[in-house]
Amino acid sequence: MMKIIILIFLLCVLANKHACARIAPKKIRGYNIDRVTDEAIETECDLFSGTWVHDTSYPLYDALKCPHISTEFNCKANGRPDSDYEKWRWQPNGCNIPRFSGRGILDKLTGKRLIFVGDSISQNQFLSLICLLYTEFPDTFVPSNSSNFRFKSLEYNSSIEFFWAPYLVDLEITEEGKRILHVDEIQNNAMHWMGADVMIFESSKWWPQVLGSQRWDIIVEGNQSYADMDPVVAYTKALTTWAKWISSNPNPQTLVLFRGTSFSHYDSRKRCDEKEPIQDPSYNPQPTFHAKIVEEVLKSTSPGVKFFNITRNSAFRQDGHSSVYTTLKISAPHEDCTHWCLPGVPDSWNQLLYA
Question: Where is the Trichome birefringence-like C-terminal domain (predicted)?
Fold first, then answer.
């Protein structure tokens, strides 16, 4: 029946899009479609390809008024003197996206559980969403544990959670401190993800691009142990394990996204002290090896699993990193050119989720 309704709606759009509002379904699989505009119908929208536009109506929240930002992401509190990095809006090619609405997100999340799974960049995005919601509804989502990794709303019967799993697959720490990466096992991590309605995964930064820079001591696959493994092979095996779990476990109605690699901007001095985004529209950043593997592995999953590819979006924002402003002590031993100041780039990812 739903397929028939959608077909009638699409035929109506082709014939007379302005008359469609009377018969258009308000939701499909629980997600609002009543923000479809004439522009979106008439043009091809690419959410992940676009430009950054300076917008003085930004930021969407004040870092100093959100109590949930981790210190390393709160550049303003750590003394960053400029503020233009907060005033850029992502403009996709071919369409406009609505300004973020906490109410809109809450409507979508009513009765649902949203989880972020990955490394500290996923935590960056998770805390961005918490602050976006806190600004409009400071008493709605509250921490349900001391780690600030799980926020619940009794009013909306929903939760937003972050799970640390930088490899997605299981990492075992022995009593002797040995780090054993099981590229074919995921259950110890995945047991915490069961029952989520929206899952946003990411795994890339902890996978080295060259041998010898790994953060594990041993790789195990089945009964075989390896002192090391080609990074491409290891990453492919781990993602394949994740893909098999995704295909066999979540409810078909679960929305599953795999977020692309967030860009780092270390220059030849291992620094990132730029004050403006890259403005050259012809700039074409070369992806890391992760993207091709992700796209290939996702082909083996159900059609409902989507690649949330924010790599190009983040590649232009050389100005948005935490840099030396990860602590109040400005003379930090190194600059962080991987994580993002909040407010900042991760807010745009959550705006794309809302769109």
Answer: 97-355
- Classify each residue of 308-322 as buried b or exposed e, where b means 16 or more C-beta atoms within 10 Å of its C-beta: bbbbbbbbbbbbbbb
Q: Please spell the DSSP secondary structure of 252-287, one letter per residue.
A: TT-EEEEEPPPPP---TTS----SS----TT--PPP
Sorted by where each starts, the structural domains of the chain and their CATH numbers stand as: 55-354 (3.40.50.1110)
The helices-and-strands tally (H runs, E runs) of the chain is 9, 17
Interatomic CA distance for residues 213 and 63, integer angstroms: 34
What is the rounded CA–CA span in Å between residue 52 and residue 36?
A: 23
Enter the pTM of the model. Answer: 0.86
Q: Which active-site residues does the annotation give? A: 120, 336, 339
Q: Which helix (H) or strand (E) holds 182?
A: strand 179-182
Sign (positive/negative) of CA torsion 207, 210, 213, 219?
Answer: positive
What are the pLDDT digits (tens) for 75-97? 999 999 999 999 999 999 999 99
The angle, 0 to 180 degrees and rounded to 10, between the axes of the packed helices 120-136 and 102-109 is: 110
